[in-house]
Amino acid sequence: MTTDAEGLKERVNKALNSQDQSTITLLSSLLVVHDELGYMPEEAVEEVARYTNSTINDVWGVASFYTNFRFTPPGTHTVELCWGPSCHVMGAMPVVKAVLDALGLDSESDTPDGKMTVRFNTCLGACAQGPVISVDHKLMGRLSPDVARQVIAGLDGEGVE
Ligand code: FES
């Protein structure tokens, strides 16, 4: 039987070893681990340091430079809101506002109950489908504020006024 710590270490190492590009860097290693876990716990930082032959300070230095890395676990659901130029002209801001209002948030952050993490994104790669959001890595396009509210209500399991 594996402990949580062993399970985490196994996931981190599997992600690190999955890199098949010719140049593996500290940053590419951080990215694959962050994609796998959704955040960078201390144990993962240590594994990245070992794997890239860097110091733990080097890894913290790079990870803390980029605002996209987080060091605490994300909410149960992660909602990314695109407010890039294409989505913006197709009505992203009312969708962004609808989602933030539905969750009682002012900006990107986690809900106090830890259920939801909201992040802004400048392009989710589906510009023609704008406004686009991503819910737990699943893209949803041509969203209206009403549909966005329904999506959030469905995730939350609670009604939205
Ligand atoms: S600008 Fe929103 S998906 Fe590209």
CATH architecture of the largest domain: 3-Layer(aba) Sandwich
Task: Classify the oligomer.
Answer: single chain
Order of helices and strands: HHHHEHHEEEEH
Mean pLDDT: 93
Radius of gyration: 18 Å
Helix content: 40-55%
CATH topology of the largest domain: Glutaredoxin
List ligands, each type once. Answer: FE2/S2 (inorganic) cluster
Provide a count of the helices.
7
Largest sheet: 5 strands, mixed
Bin the strand percentage. Answer: 5-15%
Give the total of domains: 2
CATH homologous superfamily descriptor of the largest domain: Glutaredoxin
Placed side by side, the strands forming the largest sheet appear as 2-3-1-4-5
The secondary-structure class comes to alpha+beta
- Tell me, what's the shape? elongated
The number of E-state strands comes to: 5
Note poorly predicted spans: none
Amino-to-carboxy terminus distance: 46 Å
Task: Kindly provide the name of the CATH class of the largest domain.
Answer: Alpha Beta
Give an overview in words:
With 161 residues, the chain is an alpha+beta fold. It has seven helices and five strands, in the order ααααβααββββα. The protein has a five-stranded mixed β-sheet with strand order 2-3-1-4-5, covered by helices on one side. A hairpin with a 5-residue loop joins β2 and β3. The longest helix has 14 residues, at 4-17. The model has no long low-confidence stretch (mean pLDDT 93). Residues 82, 84-87, 123-127, 130, 132 line the site of FE2/S2 (inorganic) cluster.
